[in-house]
Write a structure and sequence with these properties.
Elements: H1 5-30, H2 33-41, H3 52-65, H4 69-88, H5 104-119
Helix pairs in contact: 1-3, 1-5, 3-4, 4-5
């Protein structure tokens, strides 16, 4: 079908943004104690833990709205690289009990963020896909 590229970009943005926002809402309501613990355990300044709000609240909202979507995608990629480094390195070669890769959710977020970064928001967005970073 011709002309479905923008619809595909919308579906990708909404899927990534909505699913990742659930993680952000959990951190808003439940705090970032776990993230703080992991950041400090890796020798990073404790303030770095608060960046999770940008990665799991601000970036998903940007993606959902289609506003600075490429930046939102980049933030998701950075957020997921931090999550992989801080929490999931020991699972890189592991399988889940269901037989899939133990990190398939993290890989989904990482690769989807990269796709939005490369593709942009499309015309079903606040800017109509006309902005450089949308």
């Amino acid at each position: 079908m011709r002309g479905t590229d923008d619809l595909g970009k919308l579906v990708l943005r909404l899927n990534l943004g909505i699913l990742l926002l659930f993680h952000g809402v959990k951190k808003i309501t439940g705090g970032i104690g776990f993230v703080h613990t992991m950041v400090v355990a890796h020798g990073l300044p404790p303030q770095v833990a608060y960046l999770v709000y940008i990665g799991e609240v601000v970036a998903p909202v940007l993606l959902i709205l289609g506003f600075y979507s490429r930046i939102g995608g980049l933030i998701v990629v950075i957020n997921m690289l931090f999550a992989l480094f801080l929490v999931h390195m020991h699972q890189l070669g592991s399988l889940a009990p269901t037989g899939g890769w133990a990190l398939e959710l993290q890989a989904f977020y990482l690769v989807s963020g990269l796709c939005v970064l490369l593709l942009g928001a499309g015309r079903f967005s606040i800017s109509g896909g006309r902005g450089t970073w949308d």
